[in-house]
């Protein structure tokens, strides 16, 4: 391994929603750079994915554990932090990646829809970071996975889009509040990536997204690895002077 690849040796990373899509790619990248990883997931069907992933990342000479916890539940943040501390004794990097998307026009909005999305996308990350504080090390990293949806004003995205805007706002507050420990806190803003989440919104939505990429500088969907690479930069020592920021990963789909 080159020194560049081992920049995270000895670090402990938590990745929420780490079994599939962008989260899985982030787990692989952080492990390949030497970090031990706590992989969170929620569905029973992802248990075997988590097991396989743990075996895969071990080939980098790192350790990994998984923890099943629904980030939308009140006890998930503590459960994930306890798993990290029990396995590794500390936390260096938190990647708030796990998220849910669902689109509804204003007229169809319900409190249940709002709570389903906000509890996972906003409340979960907020309390995960809060619970981590006693264990979060000097020069730690908080990386929140936002979305271009936070700025697009897409019809039907009131709840999802605003949940991502809230997450970006939390990144900035934490950048200020945790600076005394030299912790940085940033958001990554992916454009459309063809994962299960995007497919779950339906073929018409995927089609629309595909067409919308045609106006981008690079007219295609992004890949999970392209997003993970940005997270890798933010997790590493070379990003110390970047905090409270939003890094786009969208191939020129949306210029901030
Ligand atoms: N794909 C895109 O186009 C796109 C664009 C912009 C931003 N994003 C953001 O990127 C992040 C990852 O999305 P993705 O596209 O990679 O989705 P994905 O392939 O559907 O994977 C979602 C991951 O999140 C986990 N997850 C879902 N609900 C959870 C919960 N309540 N508690 C804990 N984990 C949960 C899933 O765990 P299980 O496997 O256990 O279900 C899975 O590991 C999300 O925050 C999303 O908003 C995605």
Order of helices and strands: EHEHEHEHEHHEHHHE
Task: State the CATH class.
Answer: Alpha Beta
Q: How is the quaternary structure best described?
A: single chain
Low-pLDDT runs of 5+ residues are none
> Mind telling me the C-alpha Rg?
17 Å
Mean pLDDT: 96
Q: Please name the fourth-level CATH homologous superfamily.
A: NAD(P)-binding Rossmann-like Domain
> Counting H and I runs of at least 4 residues, what is the number of helices?
9
Determine the structural class based on helices, strands and strand pairing.
Answer: alpha/beta
In a few lines, what is going on in this structure?
Belongs to the short-chain dehydrogenases/reductases (SDR) family. This protein is of the alpha/beta class and 256 residues long.
List the helices and strands and how they pair.
Elements: E1 12-15, H1 21-32, E2 36-41, H2 47-58, E3 64-68, H3 76-88, E4 91-96, H4 111-132, E5 136-145, H5 149-152, H6 158-177, E6 184-190, H7 196-200, H8 203-212, H9 224-235, E7 246-249
Parallel strand pairs: 1-2, 1-4, 2-3, 4-5, 5-6, 6-7
NADP nicotinamide-adenine-dinucleotide phosphate is lined by residues 16-17, 19-23, 40-43, 46, 70-72, 97-101, 120, 145, 147, 190, 192-193, 195-198.
GO molecular function: oxidoreductase activity, acting on CH-OH group of donors
InterPro entries: KR_dom, NAD(P)-bd_dom_sf, Sc_DH/Rdtase_CS, SDR_fam
Keywords: NADP, Oxidoreductase
């Amino acid at each position: 391994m080159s020194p560049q690849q081992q920049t995270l040796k000895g670090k402990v990373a938590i990745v929420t929603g780490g079994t599939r899509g962008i989260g899985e790619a982030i787990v692989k990248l952080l492990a390949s750079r030497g970090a031990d990883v706590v992989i969170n997931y929620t569905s029973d069907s992802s248990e075997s994915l988590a097991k396989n992933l743990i075996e895969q990342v071990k080939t980098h000479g790192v350790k990994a554990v998984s923890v099943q916890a629904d980030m939308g539940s009140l006890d998930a943040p503590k459960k994930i932090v306890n798993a990290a501390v029990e396995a590794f004794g500390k936390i260096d990097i938190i990647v708030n990646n796990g998220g849910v998307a669902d689109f509804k026009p204003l007229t169809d909005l319900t409190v249940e829809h709002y709570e389903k999305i906000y509890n996972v996308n906003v409340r979960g990350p907020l309390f995960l970071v809060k619970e981590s504080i006693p264990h979060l090390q000097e020069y730690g990293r908080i990386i929140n996975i936002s979305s271009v949806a936070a700025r697009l004003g897409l019809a039907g995205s009131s709840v999802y889009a605003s949940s991502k805007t809230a997450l970006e706002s939390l990144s900035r507050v934490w950048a200020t509040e945790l600076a005394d420990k030299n912790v940085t806190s940033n958001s990554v803003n992916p454009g459309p990536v063809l994962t299960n989440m995007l497919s779950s919104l339906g073929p018409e939505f995927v089609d629309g997204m595909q067409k919308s990429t045609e106006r981008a500088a690079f007219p295609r969907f992004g890949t999970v690895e392209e997003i993970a690479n940005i997270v890798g930069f933010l997790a590493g020592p070379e990003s110390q002077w970047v905090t409270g920021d939003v890094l786009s990963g969208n191939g020129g789909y949306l210029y901030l």
